[in-house]
Structure formats: C-alpha cells, structure tokens
Amino acid sequence: DHEFILNGDIIDNPYGKMSATDREFLDYFGEMSLRQKVVWIRGNHDNGYVPDQLEKIQIKQHYALQKRLIVTHGDFFDEVMPQSRIFIKSFKMIHDKMIKFGSSPVHVSEYAKKFELLYKVLRDNVMKNAVNCALENGYEAVVCGHTHYPEDRVYNGIRYMNTGAWTESPAFYLQMTGNQMTLNPIVS
Q1: Among 6, 88, 84, 118, residue whose Cα is nearest residue 51
Q2: pLDDT tens-place string over residues 129-187
Q3: Under 8 Å CB-to-CB from 146, ≥6 apart: which residues?
Q4: Predicted TM-score of the model (pTM)
Q5: Rounded CA gap, 121 and 98, in Å?
Q6: What are the CA-CA distances from residue 96 to residues 11, 83, 85, 114, 137 (Å)?
Q7: pLDDT digit string (tens) for 20-41?
C-alpha cells in the first residue's frame, strides 16, 4: 500500500556491464512493482541505460504527490556542472593517471566535496532552481538527489529536501505519511 520512488542515479555506469548484485537489486525492484507502485525517476547517471524487463516500474523525469511534493533527481536544475566541463574533464584525466600509478578511485562527488565553497555553489544552485520550480507549480515541497548531500531546509517558503546518495554513508530516504515528511537515515 506504499509508493516506492527511486530518485535517480540507480545506475552508476549506464554503458558498462552491470554487476550481478546490481542486477539482483533491479530484479527485486521489478518484483516489488508487481505488488505496489514503483517509480524510477531518471538521474544523470541513468541516462543511456535501457532497462530490460523491469516489470511494472514506471520511469519518469519528475513525479508529483498531489500538490504537496515534487520528486525530481535535480540534474535538470543544475546550471553549474554543465558550465564546468573543462574542470570535470581535467579531474577525470588526473584521476585516471592517479589510478594508473596506484591511487584508489574516488567518486566525483567525494572530490567535489573537498572544494567546500564550489560545492556549496552547486548545492545552492540546484536547491534554488528546484524551489523556484515548486513555487511556480504550486507545490509545498521538493525533494532532489543529484548533489550527494543530504539536507532538509526551507527556502522562499518551500521545503527543500535532498536525500543525498545511496552509495554514501549514511544514506537517507524520505518517508511521507499523512501530513508528515521525514528525512530518515537508512539503518542496516
């Protein structure tokens, strides 16, 4: 009797071979969709992935729960990353060289978090654009992912929540019950 919404970046590399564990998770979500509503909001990492046999999973860009909440991954509102292509390419080049010489791989979000001021500019840009979308369309709240930074705050009278990333600890989920919306850590 619950809706289960996956808020993007379910796939990390849409063009690579999926691991058996990742395939098991997708199969589980597919089986779940036969019993309850499952919605997959596409994220920027999901683009290019063509699902095969996802049962009744609905794939969407945005999803609304009445006029209370709009769920969106957030990459659509990101004006910072598209303007930072040179930085991203440079990072990837340096990152690949470092791995070649024995360093551990680092996810781009981990690297970005080292530049706190620039990272805050990205987070604020996504939040402000998402909140403006919610305001323009009459929603009380908006939830994103994309920035890999969990937060819950009010901006311009609109509640903005970000669930962070499921690949980082602690991971969070948004639970909406009746009139309550709660950002909860996933406890294993």
Answers
A1: 6
A2: 999 999 999 999 999 999 989 999 999 999 999 999 887 888 899 999 988 999 999 98
A3: 8, 9, 43, 44, 73, 74, 75, 77, 78, 126, 162
A4: 0.85
A5: 27
A6: 21, 22, 16, 18, 43
A7: 888 888 889 999 999 999 999 9
How far, in Å, CA of 90 to CA of 56, rounded?
40
Q: What is the C-alpha to C-alpha distance for residues 174 and 182, in angstroms, rounded to an integer?
A: 6
Instruction: Tell me the torsion sign for CA atoms 20, 27, 150, 44.
Output: positive
CA distances from 32 to 8, 17, 52, 61 (A): 17, 23, 16, 20
Q: From 120, 156, 118, select the one nearest 136 (Cα to Cα).
A: 156
Rounded to 5°, angle at Cα 45 from 72 and 115: 85
pLDDT at 82: 63
Residue 96: pLDDT above 90?
A: no
Q: In 3D, which of 112, 127, 14, 46 has the Cα closest to residue 79?
A: 127
